[in-house]
C-alpha cells in the first residue's frame, strides 16, 4: 500500500468495466459528465455486450455492480473565503478517482491518464495502489498543460485503487478574455483508463468527457478532514493507514464522501463521532452523546470507499461534548471495539484506529440549541452552577425537543416553561 503526498508550488465505473470516477473536484456543484466506453478485441469478432445506456445507471455504493460512474465536484476553498468562484481568484478543489474491479477476473495493465489545462496546477497527490502518479507540465517554460499518468498494474476482483489530487485553479482570464463575462473554464480533458482482461483477450479504453464551468459561479464550500494512524505520542505514523472525509459543513443532512487506505483487511470499521466527557480519561467511550456515521468492509488490500448521507440530528460538536465549541473528533475504529446501540467505544486498541488530524464543525440546519444557566443577582452566570441544554427542531408542525440539565437540586421537580414578558 502506498499513500504518499506531494507538495509543490501552488502554481500548477463502474461497468462490468468498473471505474468509479468521483471527480471529487473541490468545486462543489454537480457537473453532468457522461462516460464513454470503447473496447478493442485482440482477436476479431469478440463482443462483450457493453450496455449502451451505461450513463443512466448510477449508485452511491460502488460495492454493487453497475455501468457508468459516480462523479461529484466539491469546492474546497476560494481566495476570499466565500462560496462564489470569481474572476481572478485562486480556487482549490480535490479530484478523487476510485477504480473498482467488478469482473470475476483480474484487470491487468491498468494505466490512468488525464490532461489538466494550463490554469490548473497539482498541489498534493495522495494514492494507494500502483506506482506513484507522475504529473508533468508540457509546453513553453513549463507553463502548458499538465499530463498525469498513473500506472496501477493489476487489480483483482472487488479491489479498489484510489487517487486523490488537490488542485489549484487560477481563474485570471487570458488577455483575449479580459472583456468577456462570464469566463469559461475547462478543469479536465477527461480521465482515461486503459486495461486488459487476459482471459478474454480484450483491451478496454474507458474515458470521461471534459469537465467545464463558467466563472462567476456560486457553489457551496465543502470541508475536508484527514484521519491518520498515530503512535503512543499521538504523532502521525509515516506510511501508516490513512483516510479522508469530505463533507458539507452546513446542511440538514451530513452529506459525505470517505475513503481509507492501508487498514487491517480482517476487520470491518465504523466511522464515528467521539464525544468526550469532562473527565475523559476516567469516563471514556465517546458517548456524550456520540454517533455512528457509517460502516465499511475493506477490500483485500485494506482500502475502503463510500459516499453517503445521514441525519445526525445534532450539530458537531454537540453542546454536551467536552470539546464544545472547539470542534468534534471523528475516528475510524474496528466494529468489534464499538457498541452500536449505546454509541460507545468498549475496547481500546488505538494502533488499529484512525484519528482526526484536526477537529471539525458541522451545522445541522434542522436543529437549534439553547443553553440555560444558573445566574446570580447581577444576572451573571454562576461558575460551576447548574445548567441545561435544549435542542429543538426548527421545522415541523409541533415543538420537537430534547432537554438535558445538570447540577439541579435533587429534592425538587422542575418545569421547563416559556416565559412571556408583559
Amino acid at each position: 500500500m502506498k499513500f504518499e503526498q506531494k507538495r509543490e508550488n501552488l502554481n500548477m465505473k463502474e461497468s462490468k468495466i468498473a471505474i468509479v470516477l468521483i471527480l471529487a473536484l473541490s468545486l462543489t456543484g454537480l457537473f453532468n459528465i457522461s462516460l464513454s466506453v470503447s473496447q478493442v478485441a485482440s482477436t476479431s469478432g469478440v463482443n462483450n455486450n457493453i450496455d449502451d445506456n451505461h450513463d443512466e445507471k448510477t449508485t452511491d455504493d460502488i460495492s454493487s455492480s453497475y455501468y457508468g460512474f459516480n462523479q461529484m465536484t466539491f469546492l474546497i476553498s476560494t481566495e476570499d473565503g466565500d462560496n462564489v468562484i470569481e474572476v481572478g481568484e485562486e480556487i482549490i478543489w480535490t479530484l478523487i478517482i476510485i477504480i473498482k474491479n467488478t469482473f470475476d477476473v483480474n484487470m491487468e495493465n491498468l494505466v490512468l491518464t488525464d490532461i489538466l489545462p494550463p490554469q490548473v496546477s497539482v498541489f498534493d497527490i495522495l494514492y494507494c495502489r500502483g506506482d506513484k502518479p507522475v504529473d508533468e507540465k508540457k509546453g513553453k517554460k513549463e507553463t502548458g498543460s499538465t499530463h498525469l499518468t498513473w500506472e496501477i498494474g493489476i487489480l483483482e476482483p472487488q479491489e479498489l485503487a484510489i487517487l486523490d489530487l488537490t488542485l489549484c485553479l487560477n481563474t485570471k482570464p487570458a488577455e483575449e478574455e479580459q472583456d468577456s463575462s462570464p469566463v469559461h473554464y475547462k478543469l479536465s480533458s477527461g480521465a482515461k483508463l486503459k486495461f486488459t482482461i487476459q482471459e478474454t483477450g480484450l483491451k478496454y479504453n474507458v474515458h470521461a468527457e471534459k469537465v467545464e464551468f463558467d466563472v462567476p459561479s456560486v457553489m457551496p464550500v465543502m470541508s475536508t478532514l484527514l484521519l491518520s494512524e498515530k503512535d503512543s505520542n499521538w504523532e502521525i505514523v509515516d506510511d501508516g493507514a490513512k483516510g479522508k472525509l469530505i463533507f458539507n459543513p452546513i446542511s440538514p443532512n451530513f452529506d459525505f464522501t470517505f475513503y481509507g487506505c492501508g487498514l487491517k483487511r480482517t476487520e470491518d470499521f465504523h466511522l464515528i463521532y467521539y464525544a468526550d466527557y469532562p473527565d475523559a480519561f476516567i469516563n471514556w467511550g465517546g458517548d456524550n452523546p456520540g454517533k455512528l456515521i457509517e460502516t465499511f468492509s475493506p477490500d483485500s488490500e485494506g482500502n475502503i470507499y463510500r459516499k453517503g448521507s445521514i441525519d445526525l440530528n445534532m450539530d458537531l460538536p454537540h453542546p454536551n461534548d467536552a470539546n464544545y465549541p472547539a470542534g468534534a473528533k471523528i475516528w475510524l475504529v474496528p466494529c468489534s471495539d464499538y457498541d452500536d446501540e449505546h454509541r460507545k467505544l468498549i475496547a481500546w486498541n488505538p494502533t488499529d484506529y484512525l484519528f482526526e488530524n484536526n477537529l471539525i464543525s458541522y451545522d445541522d440546519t434542522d436543529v437549534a440549541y439553547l443553553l440555560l444557566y444558573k445566574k446570580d443577582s447581577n444576572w451573571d452566570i454562576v461558575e460551576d452552577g447548574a445548567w441545561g441544554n435544549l435542542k429543538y427542531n426548527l421545522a415541523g408542525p409541533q415543538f420537537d425537543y430534547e432537554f438535558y440539565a445538570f447540577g439541579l437540586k435533587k429534592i425538587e421537580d422542575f418545569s421547563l416553561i416559556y416565559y412571556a414578558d408583559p
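The chain has three domains: 19-218, 223-364, 367-406. The CA atoms of residues 277 and 322 lie 5 Å apart.
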